[in-house]
Structures are given as C-alpha cells and as structure tokens.
Amino acid sequence: MSQFMTTFGIWLGAFFTISIFSFLYKDNPFYKLAEQIFVGLSAGYWFIYTIYSILIPNLFGKILSDFNSNIMLLIPALLGMMMLIRLIPKLEWISRYPIALVIGTSAGISMLRYTQSDVLSQVAATMINPLGMNTIGEKIGSFILIIGTVCVIMYFYFSRKQEGILGATSKFGIWFLMISFGASFGYTVMARISLLIGRLQFLLGDWLHIIKP
Amino acid sequence: MNVNKIITNLISLLLVLPFSLNAVSAFVAKDHPSDDGRAIDLAWNVPDEFTSVTIEKLDSTETWFALTKTASTVSDYVDNDGIEPGLNSQYRLIAKNPANGDSLMLSTQITSRAQWFNYKKSPLLFLLLLLSGAVIYYILSARRGKELFIRRINGLESMDEAVGRATEKGKPILFVPGIGDLDDIQTIAGLTILSQLAYKAATYNADLIVPVSKSMVLSTAREIVKEAYLKAGRPDAFNPDCVFYLTDDQFGYVAGIDGIMVREQPAANFFLGTFYAESLILAETGFGTGAMQTAGTAQPHQLPFFVVTCDYTLIGEELFAASAYLSKEPNQLGSLKGQDFGKLFIVLLIIIGSIMEMSGIHWLKNILMFE
C-alpha cells in the first residue's frame, strides 16, 4: 500500500508539474485545474498550520496549562477576536483598532531596526580608507564604493529638481543602480535555473527514471 | 594624527583609572555598563613577580571554580556566564610565583544591575531625534502653508494614465500588494498607494481587483478601498469582493494571480509591496497580457526583474515617497522633506567619516559601530 501511495504521489506530482508548465503555451483547462487545486490546497494547509503551529502552542496551550502565568496572552487573543468581528457588518469598525495597533507598532519597530541596521551600520561600513587598501584594484573599488553610495543616495533626494550638481550625481547614482541590478539579475537567474533543474530532475529521474535521481 | 593619539590616550587613561587606584595590587569587579545586568567586568593589577594569575568564582554550591588562568599580571575579564541581575557574585584572584613560592589572594564581590539606558546606542538616539525633529519641523511648515517642492517621479505619473486606459477599455485594474504582512513597511507603503489608486478608480468608475495573501492585509486593504470610495463620493460603487484572499502560500498566490491576469485581462497591473521569487513570474505574465505595468519594491534582488518587465518601476525609496507625491497632503509632504534632510545628513556623515578614516581618525566610525 505504501509503495502504491509513493508511486501515486510521484505520478500526481508529475501531472501537476506538467499542468503548471503548460501555462508556458497558453492558459488551458489543465493549468486551471492545477492552479485551483494549488490555491485551495495551500490556503487550507496554511489555515491548519496557523491553528496547530501558532494558535495552539502560543495561545490555547499556554492559557489552558498555566492561566495565571500567561494572563497577558489574553490581550493578543482579544485583538484577534476584534479582527474576527469584521464578520458582523455593523461592528466592522472594531477591527480597525487591532489593525491600527499592528501598523503603528510595525512602523515604530521598523524605524528603530532599520535606522540601526540599514542606516548607521551601512554608513559606518562605507567609512573606509581606500588609500589603506593593499592592491590598486581594492583602492579603486573602495573609492567606487564611497562615490557610488553618495550618488545613489542623492538619486533618492526628492526635494530638488535633478539639475546641476544634483543632476550629475543622480545620473551617476542611477547608473550605479542599473549596474548593480544587472549583476543581481544574472545572479538570481542562476538561482532560478537551479529551481528548474530540480523540477526536471524530478520528472526525468523520480518519474521517468531516464536519469538517476 | 597627534590630536587623535592624545584623545585615545585620555580615553584609555579614564578607562583604566577606576581599576588602578591601588597600584600595588588590586582586584576590582564592576557592573558591566549599558547592559541588562548579565555581565560583570573584572580587572586586576598585581606585582610583576607573579607569573600565574587564576580568577575563581563561587558557584551556587559554595564551590570555587576557575574562570580564567593567565600569566598576565595586569589584565581584565568579562564574566557573562550565568550572571543574573540582582544576584551577588563573589570572585577571588590567586597569584603565584613558583620560583620563590610566594602567593597572593584577593577577593571581591558585586551585585549586577540592569541598566536603564544603553549609552552605546546614543548615536541611534541622536539620529532618530534629528530625523524626527526635521520631519516635525517640515510638517509644521507645510501645515502653515509653505510650498514644499517634490521632483517628478516617473513611475507615479503613470497612475492617471493607467486608470484612464482601464476606463477606456472597460477592463479592470489589478493591484498586488505582495506577499509581505502588515509588519512589513513595504506592504504598508504599497497600501497607501492603493488608497490613491482606489480613489482614482472610484472617480473614473474603473473596476479594481486586489488579491491578497495575508489575512491582516485583507482587512486593511478592504478598509482602505472602502474609505477611498467613500472619499470619492461613490460608497455605493464599492464592491467588498474586489479585495479577496487567495492563499498564504507564495507560489499558490502567484498561480492564482497569473490565472486572474490571463482571464480578466486587466488594462493595468500594479505590483507594489514586498516581492521575492514570484516577482518575475507575475511581471512576465502581466507583460504577456499586454497590460500597462507599474511595480515598486525595496527588495534589491527583485528590482531587476521589475525593471526589465514593467513600464514603470518605483525603486526602493520611491515606493515610500509615492504616497506623499500622490496625495500632496501636508503631513506626508513634510515627512518626505524631513527624510530628505536625513539623506543629506547621511551623505555628509559618509564624506566626513571617509575623510577622517583616510586621516587615521577612527572615533566617528567606532561610535557608529555599536552592537
């Protein structure tokens, strides 16, 4: 029985993989079927995952096992219930409070976190001494790093028209951005090719046994 | 160079001073500064005749165990193993000279305390106060009626064109807020643009489709679109089902949106928020349907895909500036101006810091590199 289920699973996987790939030709009933099952199945999976991996271990389990020590958990529980009140149209407004709390808290925490990690740490990392580098390549690279960072920041300066010195630095900035995008594009495409290779290995190896898995 | 050396020496002297009160032999324990009370600084200074120094600590079973053993007679050690704030810790130093058999034992004790402030993070506080001050100043200026200029952002000029095109063709507008949740600032930025887009769609009577992948985003997006229709004076035209949940799963979400794009054939697609590996799949499908596409994210690895497949791309910071640009609302304009002030300050800091590093002065970089 277990052998049958394994084989059945492989055939099912192969069918859905080919159905999804068929979208490369055009939209068709096989793709529609695979898409609907994928969306429905994953939505159901995440629903169950949320209950068993988040709600039970982090809320219900703790409250039921030791209520006094976990009384603070009633606050997020209450906020969660306020969200569910959206289902009653007349009381829909109540759900705005947990939304406001989440957005406000996220913005506040992000501000602190990003100021430290994306601003101060990056600024400190850009403060380098190119003249102290060992090779000529490292020296040039370090100068490019400082100039590139300054130019890119100036590209995102919105308070003035991009004319004169600001225009020139902004132009350099967008060039630096585009070069980095090009490098990033190539790097990411390589990573995506590995995903395709994974699927092809499944089809040709696990399913058709043409290649060794 | 000399000034730097003098400053460095002065700082070193100040740091050593508390530990060197007894020049002959001293063993001092101090609460580690700017921490949560889980570390103790130990420092010792014993005569040079001793060749072995062992630092021991008394554990909960009243037994002494060695923390560290060294040949250095002037040194320090940070004990951060099992220290609890408010609990007393006892230490002793045993120095030995095997050559003449002399030995020395010094003991000390201390109770560590959690500190209210982490002074190492003062640069962070300073920068936040400076940025907040600039933002508040410019918001107040904007409210007083001062004209605040914002340069043209191409990607955002497309919104009117996209809505007009959708209205003319009688086809919907697709807005995708990405796979981030509400705790992601990019999702919030995307949703603020949705507010402007929904307002224009309501004004021109264009249909809007907003598939989402997170429950919190669903509630928020629905509220935002409803509010926009209300603001446009067309609350009756709001269809709650235009904002709907697909799935939390990344590729399930993409598969669903791809299906929507090929079946509904939207006239314009907006991808604004957090995107990962799905970015190219979405934008490429949209490109295939011939829709006018505008994308925006702060994910550096996904931006190249949007740049090559979309008509307009909001790069990083432009996504966050979009809301102010579109609404021209004083609070948001002032906020954007304040952020611009912050950018100028950062550029200045980088230039000054780099010049200082080239001159061999490192204190500015050091104070910014706190943990």
Task: Describe, in short, the structure shown.
Chain A contains six helices and no strands.
Proportion of residues in β-strands of chain A: under 5%
Order of helices and strands of chain A: HHHHHH
Radius of gyration of chain B: 31 Å
Number of domains of chain B: 3
- Assigned CATH class of the largest domain in chain B: Alpha Beta
> How far is it from the N-terminal to the C-terminal residue of chain B, by CA?
27 Å
N-end to C-end Cα span of chain A: 23 Å
Q: Provide the helix percentage of chain B.
A: 40-55%
Integer average pLDDT of chain B: 90
| Spatial strand arrangement across the major sheet of chain B | 10-9-8-11-12-13
> What number is the mean pLDDT of chain A?
92
Q: The CATH topology of the largest domain in chain B is what?
A: Rossmann fold
Q: Main beta sheet of chain B, described?
A: 6 strands, parallel
Question: Topology of this protein?
Answer:
The complex is a heterodimer of chains A (213) and B (371).
Chain A: H1 2-21, H2 29-65, H3 74-84, H4 96-126, H5 136-155, H6 164-207
Chain B: H1 2-16, E1 26-31, E2 40-45, E3 52-58, E4 64-70, E5 74-79, E6 88-97, E7 102-111, H2 122-143, H3 154-169, E8 173-178, H4 185-204, E9 208-212, H5 215-231, E10 243-245, H6 250-264, E11 268-274, H7 279-289, E12 292-297, H8 303-309, E13 312-315, H9 317-327, H10 330-358, H11 363-368
Parallel strand pairs in B: 8-9, 8-11, 9-10, 11-12, 12-13
Antiparallel strand pairs in B: 1-2, 2-5, 3-4, 3-6, 6-7
